[in-house]
Design a protein that fits this description.
By secondary structure, the protein is α+β, with helices and mostly antiparallel strands. The chain contains six helices and seven strands, in the order H-H-H-H-H-E-E-E-E-E-E-H-E.
Length: about 190
Amino acid sequence: MTSHTSIEELLRWRLECALAEAPPAPRAARLLALARPWWETVPERFRDLLAQVEALQPAIGHAMTDAHRSGTSHPVPVVIARGSNDDDFATVAHVLFIQVRNGMVRLRFQLQGGADSGATAYDATFVSSLAGHAPFEATAIRSVDHEYRVESEISPALEPSWSRLRVTDPMPFRLILRPPVDGSMSPSPHG
């Protein structure tokens, strides 16, 4: 004897099963905490990484003047956070492409020398060279030839000055690269 179950009944049964297995919804306070950028949740670590990336500026000053003369990109100071301060890696990135238009920044960069660990993505925190704060964070995804690309919304406050940038200009930011926390590949703009 076969019983005929309609698709609607089957879908209702599956929905009830899924609801029974689902974890409880997080509390509002937890959702608010998850929405905060990492530099607000661990300010001590951010200050350490910021100090490291700011210390790189004088060290690469000669390379910046050479870049200006040769018409290539200016090196951008980068710290790759790998856990503790002792594991962090300082290097520079060379901007290969930058375009800011319609509220979006598109950027391609390559890490210098052996700095590329083969990571498929990083959470890239763009730190202003002048103000010392984190204007936004985006996901840098590895593509061909060990290049990383970023496509993200940009703050309306940054767009006017960044839209005039060319690859050969000094960049108004430094980068802090961290492994993705949740493994997601979606950018999370903060501006």
